[in-house]
Amino acid sequence: MRVAIVTFPGSNCDYDLYKCVQLVGGAPEFRWHRDVELGEVDVVMLPGGFSYGDYLRAGAIATMSPIMEAVKDFAGSGGPVVGICNGFQMLCESGLLPGALLRNRSLLFASRDVLLRVENTSSTFTQEYQAGQILRMPIAHAEGNYHADEETLDRLEGEGRVLFRYTDAEGEAADSANPNGSARSIAGILNESGNVMGMMPHPERAVEPILGSVDGLGLFQTLLSHFSPLGAV
Amino acid sequence: MSRFRLEIRVTPRPGLLDPEGKAIQNALHSLDYEHVHDVRVGKLLYLDVEAASNEEARKGADAMCRRLLANPVTEDFEIEVQEATEETVPA
């Protein structure tokens, strides 16, 4: 699995992703936002951080970067694209995923562990998880409040495109367990064709016991299961 | 070609929760401005542009708003076009 990790000015989770892809046995490669080609890769990952200082709207200016044309082409041809945190914001801003991420309802930057319930275990990204499994991983964002109109939310739910929801320890999507005010407690979603996913929590920061959780590993292991580990053609 | 000054107001859609506006409203209430029922916070952008006409300047700004300056999912925008004067053109 050859993974292109795109670094933007202000990205800060690109090395976490790099290490994480290595950890599961994949072959990560960095791409710079001014690159115009992705090269021969199996997966594209857009990392967390504060691209362009979150100016205008989080993720908005990054979508104008030259590399994003290549990312759109890659997604359009069915290539798997993962956006985490700021990467999720970019995917929404670029129109590759529906909806938008608003300011947290608390107005605070939320940096702590949350619990997620796995809502879809048949996607390209989540097959290694069990239905209803509760995962622990960190969030670190100020604009993670997922918003879309009711019709879009109904479609996402009806088509199984909600991947993860914020829940309490009992697996209930209670309002008190929703860290940012996201509509219907949505933490991660899938596009219509099922090859582009975005999520606010950080699976790449939950991949080793020393980090307090290994629950993020499943996502990377699922991706790896679709490709030969080091991408030999 | 003439120079125009564009004033673009980007505001959160009506009905959309605006936590920043809410926080400011609460702060105003704590100063005893109890009669404030709603606060919405948006962005104000000034652009100096060259265009053949007022209409063309507006058309360009409309496209900019749709492509970048406003998020169509969450924000509305309004555009005002003024012919630039000595005062509005920065030295």
Unreliable stretches covering 5 or more consecutive residues of chain A: none
Looking across the biggest beta sheet of chain B, what order are the strands in?
A: 2-1-3
Name of the CATH superfamily of chain B: Phosphoribosylformylglycinamidine synthase subunit PurS
Which sheet architecture does the biggest sheet of chain B show?
3 strands, antiparallel
The CATH architecture name of chain B reads 2-Layer Sandwich
Which spans of chain B have pLDDT < 50 for at least 5 consecutive residues? none
Provide the CATH architecture of chain A.
Answer: 3-Layer(aba) Sandwich
Order of adjacent strands in the largest pleated sheet of chain A: 2-1-3-4-11-10-9-6-7
- Report, as a whole number of angstroms, the end-to-end distance of chain B: 19 Å
How many separate domains make up the residues of chain A? 1
Overall pLDDT metric of chain A: 96
Account of the 3D structure:
The complex is a heterodimer of chains A (233) and B (91). With 233 residues, chain A is α/β, with parallel strands linked by helices. Chain A contains 5 helices and 11 strands, in the order βαββαβαββββαβββα. In chain A, the strands form 2 sheets. In chain A, strands 2-1-3-4-11-10-9-6-7 form a 9-stranded mixed beta sheet, with helices on both faces. A two-stranded antiparallel ribbon of chain A has the order 5-8. The radius of gyration of chain A is 16 Å and the shape is globular. The relative contact order of chain A is 0.19. Chain B is an alpha+beta fold. Chain B has one domain: Phosphoribosylformylglycinamidine synthase subunit PurS (Mth169, Chain: A, 2-Layer Sandwich). The longest helix of chain B is centred in the C-terminal third of the chain and has 16 residues, at 54-69. The relative contact order of chain B is 0.34. The A-B interface holds A 56-57, 60-61, 64, 92-93, 98-100, 102-107, 145, 147-149, 181 and B 16-17, 19-20, 23, 68-69, 71, 73-74.
